[in-house]
Amino acid sequence: MISWSAVVGGVSMLAMIPARGPVLVGLAWMGQFAGAGAMIVAIATVRQRLVPDHLLGRVLGTARMIAFSSIPLAALAAGLFESAVRNAYAVMAFAGLSWLAVAGAVTRSPLRNMEALRDGEALRDVEALRDGSEGRWARPEESPPPDQG
Question: Which end of the chain has fewer CB atoms < 10 Å from its terminal CB, N or C?
Fold first, then answer.
């Protein structure tokens, strides 16, 4: 699902280049937002299935911080790129190809098949954390108190 939604987003972004008129541009934007929305839901589902409950808040907070911190940097990079090439269509092409590169990377990753991942060794470590039997991290209620310095 993550791969296909990235493909939809990338193809929709590339479709904006030749699109003329409000209907075609609107359809391209609709595809872009549909792909992004589906990807957000799919990634949240993967995160909830893989991350132990007691770590989910920390993981979500860290992921959101990284995601939202990258927005100004991406805007700056896109602005510098557009001012260097003076072509908004080149920015759209780069964005569309970037979406497709993400789709290709996800297709080649273990995330492509959640059931195979659930049977794999990586998930055994997560399950060990989830049930508290072993692992490097202790549950929050088992963690030692912070130093009283």
Answer: C
Q: Rounded to an integer, what distance in angstroms lies between the CA atom of residue 96 and that of residue 102?
A: 10
Distance in angstroms (rounded) separating the CA atoms of residues 89 and 14: 9
Distance of alpha carbon 52 from alpha carbon 115, whole angstroms: 17
Using an 8 Å Cβ cutoff, are 135 and 125 in contact? yes
pTM above 0.70, yes or no: no
- In single-letter form, the type of residue at position 69 comes to S
The SS3 of residue 109 is coil
Nearest one of 58, 56, 43 to 103, comparing CA atoms: 43
Q: How far is CA 114 from CA 3, 62, 63, 129, in A?
A: 13, 22, 20, 18
Contact 94, 81 (CB under 8 A): yes
In whole angstroms, what is the distance from residue 52 CA to residue 15 CA?
Answer: 40
Q: In which band, very low, low, confident or very high, does the pLDDT at 106 lie, cut at 50, 70 and 90?
A: confident
